[in-house]
Amino acid sequence: MGGGIYATGKAVTLANSIIAGNTADNPWGMKQNCDGSYRSGGANLQSPLLNPDDPPCAPSILLGNPLLAALANNGGFGQTRALLPGSPAIDAGTSAACAVRDQRGRLRNFDGDNSGTAECDLGAVEFRALNNTAASPSTAVPARNVQTAASITLSWARVGEAMGYWAEIAVRTDFSAANLIYSNNALAANALTVTPPPLDGGQYYWRVRAKQPDSTWGTPTPPEAFTILKGD
């Protein structure tokens, strides 16, 4: 029987699917991923065949390493294997055959390869790459402006799939421990209000990063500067 899937009787159609990393209990390297009759609904990927005489799982299926992360709790009702950056499964799906949400319940069709077009990914988990451009502070108030108020509000563009945000304020752009005066990695909203202390008169720098669905942090945004002028 197929190590990954086995079908008998009625034909099964595969679409937007990944079949990879399976083993079958035989010494010939046959039917490692599948056994049975499968139709192709388009956009399928399976790991390379161990035996060149082993037929592929479906007509026109792509063969290659899907670059999957280890089985983990990525959200939803069961464990899944997320796509790693650079996976050929990213944006390789047929959107017409794609469910609106992935197995975790998160919306599909995200431009994971930054091509400018959002396509659905193959497999159970839609890839999300949250980086410094996704949480840009370009909409920040009062970035690049002088303020005299006792408190300051910073805001940034919301990232659709972010699990949270981490904002930092420092007196130097290196954000080293010696120069860091504020750090909060438990922000749910895409805005932050800080009231002195810790801020006093002078110039400050701030940055923010988004928390990805796999609980890792995206890269920080480039530092933005703001100035507070203390009133007499």
Reported CATH architecture of the domain at 137-228: Sandwich
CATH topology of the domain at 137-228: Immunoglobulin-like
**Total helix count?**
0
Strand content: 15-25%
Distance between the termini: 82 Å
Uncertain parts: 130-146
Total strands? 14
Using the alpha-carbon principal axes, give the shape: elongated
Q: How are the strands of the largest sheet arranged?
A: 8-14-13-10-11
What is the class of the domain at 137-228 in the CATH system? Mainly Beta
Largest sheet: 5 strands, mixed
CATH superfamily of the domain at 137-228: Immunoglobulins
How much is the average pLDDT?
A: 79
Structural class: mainly beta
Helicity range of the residues?
A: under 10%
Report the C-alpha radius of gyration, rounded.
24 Å
Please provide the ordered H/E string of secondary-structure elements: EEEEEEEEEEEEEE
Describe the structure.
The structure is a single chain. Helix content is 0%, strand content 23%. The model is unreliable at 130-146 (pLDDT under 50). The strands form five sheets. It has a five-stranded mixed beta sheet, with no helix packed on it. A three-stranded parallel beta sheet has the order 3-6-7, with no helix packed on it. A two-stranded parallel sheet has the order 1-4. The termini are far apart. The protein has a domain at 137-228: Immunoglobulin-like (Sandwich), CATH 2.60.40. The protein is built from no helices and 14 strands. The chain is an all-beta fold.
